[in-house]
Automatic annotation (TrEMBL):
Residues 144-230 form the DNA2/NAM7 helicase helicase domain. GO terms for molecular function: helicase activity. This is RNA helicase. Residues 241-431 form the DNA2/NAM7 helicase-like C-terminal domain. Pfam families: AAA_11 (PF13086), AAA_12 (PF13087). GO terms for cellular component: nuclear RNA-directed RNA polymerase complex.
Length: 462
């Protein structure tokens, strides 16, 4: 009201206050508030040039008998009623045109013979009638389409079933198993093997079960990362992050563990030995060779030790809800470039970090700078996403140098971090901070008591 000009007030029919512009009509049920509001509006003066829209959350609100009677009296059309099939367009238009006009409408050759109001009503009626016909045809086509798609799905499922029945082993994800339960039931499998069972939610395993199963074999390592739960509170307080595999192991259900590893060189395997008592190295580890551009080698080219913690104390920084450490960005870049110059291929190197923010910065920094140096970018991933994978050399950026969080201290995440490399593992971090955690302290003790110390502020190169 304060900022309206006189021209604006005149244009909007004298609406001068907020109550005039935006009236709020709040009344309890059974008072016919909508009916009264529309009637009051229509009774205020002569018919307006433009129509008034009545919008309802549900079409039933416009279908009440009192409301319909008022609409017919005031020459109104209820499109919601026509679309729902309760009335035809003709029945609704008769009060607007009159029986005589409707009967003579087919004989009209020139709409200009009608009054302006009647002419507009006839055009609107024709549009509604055409819309009604198209809507009916659309509904018929939808029903026909659904029927054809159902037939096509049935034929496809029959073909898939015939193909699957000729197979002795069928592999699929837990999601695929849940989606295709109708096919799985018809196959009637007798044995279910669950790979990475310690990383799968209990509910995901249960949805794969069928009546025909006679044996379930679960394979996994519950000392690595647990299943991911969208709501963290449900995982920590309700134990939904505990897999069926780990639950059974914790309750002393009979199980056995393979005690010979065939991935890591002995120096790397020693770091996870406290988590796996009795873990032995296969004989093939001692004779395995690393392929490089300069020929096969028993160790990482250019490096004196297969394991090293490159120490620094430069603080981390907050970044997009995560953490980054710019010093470790440069350290990882220098080490990745040096390893490639020493003869390793880019696909043999992986850079890991627990923090998504550091991963994004590493990807951008390494991609840009390595290409500028004529080298290929290396793989950069989070520790969690790299579970189950491995590579010849792993550079681990821990990011944190000032505060040690529960996220970094979890033994499951530490286990995955230290067990991905085959020939070389190089850790970037602050040993003074890590030794505050009991699990990391054991790792530091192993590194510091080695015949040649594996912790320092400078890398021992060849």
């Amino acid at each position: 009201e304060k900022y309206m000009t006189s021209a604006q007030k005149e244009k909007f029919g004298g609406l001068e206050t907020l109550q005039d512009w935006f009236p709020l009509h709040g009344s309890p049920f059974g008072t016919y508030k909508a009916l009264d509001a529309v009637r009051d509006l229509l009774n205020k003066g002569p018919r307006q040039k433009h129509p008034t829209l009545v919008e309802a959350y549900r079409a039933e609100g416009l279908h009440k008998s009192e409301f319909q009677e008022m609409l017919r009296e005031r020459n109104a059309l209820d499109l919601a009623r026509a679309e729902s099939g309760k009335d035809s367009i003709r029945t609704m238009a008769i009060p607007l045109l009159g029986e005589e006009h409707w009967a003579n409408l087919q004989a009209l050759e020139d709409l200009r013979a009608l009054s302006v109001d009647t002419r507009a009503a006839v055009v609107q009626m024709w549009l509604c009638q055409e819309h009604h016909g198209l809507l009916q045809r659309y509904r018929e086509l939808v029903v026909e389409y659904d029927s054809l798609m159902a037939s096509a799905r049935t034929a496809l499922e029959l073909h898939q079933l015939q193909v699957l029945q000729r197979s002795d082993v069928i592999g699929l994800t837990t999601t695929g198993c849940a989606i295709n339960q109708h096919l799985i039931r018809q196959l009637e499998p007798s044995v279910l093997i669950v790979e990475e069972a310690a990383e799968i939610l209990e509910s995901q395993v249960l949805c794969c079960l069928t009546k025909s199963l006679q044996q379930i074999i679960m394979i996994g390592d519950h000392k690595q990362l647990q299943p991911f739960v969208q709501v963290e509170r449900l995982g920590s307080e309700c134990n939904l992050s505990l897999s069926l595999f780990e639950r059974l192991c914790n309750n002393d259900v009979p199980h056995f563990m393979l005690a010979t590893q065939r991935r890591m060189v002995p120096e790397i395997a020693a770091l996870v030995a406290p988590l796996y008592p009795g873990l032995a190295n296969a004989d093939c580890i001692a004779t395995r060779m690393l392929k490089t551009a300069h020929g096969d080698r028993p160790s990482v080219p250019g490096m004196r030790s297969p394991v090293f913690l490159w120490a620094h104390d430069v603080p981390e920084e907050a970044y997009c809800g995560s953490q980054v450490n710019k010093q470790e960005l440069q350290m990882a870049l220098d080490l990745a470039a040096y390893l490639q110059f020493s003869g390793l291929h880019s696909r043999q190197i992986t850079v890991l970090s627990p923090y998504q923010g550091q991963v994004k910065q590493l990807q951008q920094t390494l991609r840009t700078n390595l290409r500028m140096a004529g080298l290929e970018p290396v793989d950069v991933q989070t520790v969690d996403s790299f579970q189950g994978d491995e590579n010849d050399v792993v550079i681990l950026s821990l990011v944190r140098t000032q505060s040690l969080t529960d996220f970094l201290q979890r033994p499951n995440r530490m286990c995955v971090s230290l067990s991905r490399a085959r020939f070389g593992l190089y850790i970037l971090g602050n040993p003074n901070l890590l030794e505050r955690c009991a699990h990391w302290k054991e790792v530091l003790t192993i590194l510091r008591t080695a015949p040649e110390p594996m912790v320092g502020e400078s890398l021992p190169l060849v």
